[in-house]
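User: Let's play a game. I give you a shape written as tokens, and you guess the letters that built it. Ready? Here's round one.
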């Protein structure tokens, strides 16, 4: 993804061509970037070849999931809907793990019927519910237990999941207690210890801490898990300041851990696979000039892309067409929705913008479309996958008549 002759281009497709053909806002993905990310992820951990289960919640577009499947990944799901779409994408049930604190009975029955790799349980009550279903179905079900390692992921508090005050997982004491119970059960197989401490983690140290907790606990239990599921969370460089997650260090930490524990590692990455593979292209509807700053009113809004409104996340905004005229004005990029948080970014030293120009919001591949909504009865944008110079529509723009 780069500028060619001052026009932003994905693979061999100029985004000018996209806006000539399609209405904005529109999500544009690069197939090459998806392949590259998956191949790099695999390379980083090649010495112990983990099972990689793509976190479906980060992007659940069926065509994207098919692409992910073609590149050999499994899926991490958190609802029956996600499980159904992962299966529809052709992902083998033996490469699917199911997490979540509130799986309903019907979701559990479905997962058990589909013989998925693991159900990662998050409470004693859930374990008992699975056991009851397994007994009825006369099956022995493979499960994992999600540990709450009480580890600070040093990320945004809204996306932190591994501290004791968070609702996720089971604390050490209960973990040992329920493990004993499962080992005695005729209907449950304890196969996995799982953890996930948070998302957009850029520092490897929280992972080191988390691994230390696992190491101690497993030694104390004197039990060998077939799988250790380390979750996802590896962050990406949204700020473009080269503060990248150090995969090499994480790989070393895990390799050291595996010297004493002969388990298969599972990862559940979402953002690190899909985050930087997509942009959101939007048109400037109006520019409202103000004394201190100009409001750049876009046709994209918080319902299309929620991260800035929901977490105060900052995504780079760049022009579709570069010109050499920089303004000293502050620009506030906002959407048309009647909420003050419907704002993407405030920036200075941007190039001079005009109404009807197009801008690009970067790195929207993860938790972009999957978090989008129809707030204000706004149809969700189209999604396209660019392959070389070809454009494939992988989701049509919603029609108002379907919403009303
Ligand atoms: N595994 C589990 C159990 C998870 O809960 C998550 C994300 C992942 C894996 C994938 O994490 P990743 O590799 O993508 O960081 N909407 C927020 C992020 C919420 C993450 C929820 N769990 C955002 O836009 O930043």
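Assistant: Ready! My guess for every position:
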């Amino acid at each position: 993804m780069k500028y060619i002759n001052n026009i932003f281009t994905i693979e061999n497709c100029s985004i000018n061509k996209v806006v000539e053909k399609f209405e904005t806002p529109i999500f544009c993905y690069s197939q090459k970037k998806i392949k590259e990310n998956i191949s790099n992820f695999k390379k980083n951990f090649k010495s112990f070849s983990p099972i990689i289960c793509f976190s479906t919640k980060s992007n659940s577009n069926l065509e994207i999931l098919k692409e992910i499947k073609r590149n050999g990944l499994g899926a991490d799901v958190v609802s029956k809907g996600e499980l159904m779409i992962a299966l529809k994408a052709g992902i083998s049930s033996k490469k699917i793990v199911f997490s979540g604190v509130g799986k309903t009975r019907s979701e559990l029955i479905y997962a058990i019927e589909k013989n998925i790799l693991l159900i990662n349980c998050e409470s004693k009550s859930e374990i008992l519910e699975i056991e009851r279903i397994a007994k009825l179905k006369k099956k022995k079900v493979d499960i994992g237990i999600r540990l709450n390692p009480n580890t600070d992921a040093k990320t945004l508090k809204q996306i932190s999941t591994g501290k004791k005050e968070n609702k996720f997982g089971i604390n050490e004491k209960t973990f040992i207690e329920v493990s004993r119970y499962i080992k005695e059960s005729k209907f449950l197989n304890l196969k996995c210890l799982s953890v996930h401490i948070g998302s957009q983690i850029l520092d490897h140290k929280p992972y080191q801490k988390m691994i230390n907790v696992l190491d101690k606990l497993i030694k104390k239990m004197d039990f060998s898990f077939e799988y250790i599921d380390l979750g996802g969370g590896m962050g990406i460089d949204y700020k473009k300041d080269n503060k990248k997650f150090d995969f090499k260090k994480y790989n070393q930490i895990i390799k050291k851990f595996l010297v004493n524990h002969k388990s298969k590692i599972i990862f559940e990455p979402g953002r690190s696979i899909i985050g930087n593979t997509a942009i959101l292209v939007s048109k400037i509807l109006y520019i409202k000039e103000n004394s201190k700053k100009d409001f750049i009113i876009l046709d994209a809004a918080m319902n299309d892309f929620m991260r800035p409104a929901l977490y105060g996340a900052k995504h780079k905004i760049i022009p579709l067409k570069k010109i050499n005229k920089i303004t000293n004005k502050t620009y506030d990029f906002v959407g048309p929705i009647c909420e003050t948080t419907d704002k993407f970014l405030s920036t200075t030293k941007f190039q001079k913008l005009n109404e009807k120009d197009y801008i690009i919001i970067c790195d929207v591949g993860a938790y972009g479309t999957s978090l989008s909504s129809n707030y204000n009865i706004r149809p969700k944008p189209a999604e396209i996958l660019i392959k070389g110079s070809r454009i494939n529509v992988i989701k049509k723009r919603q029609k108002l008549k379907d919403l009303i």
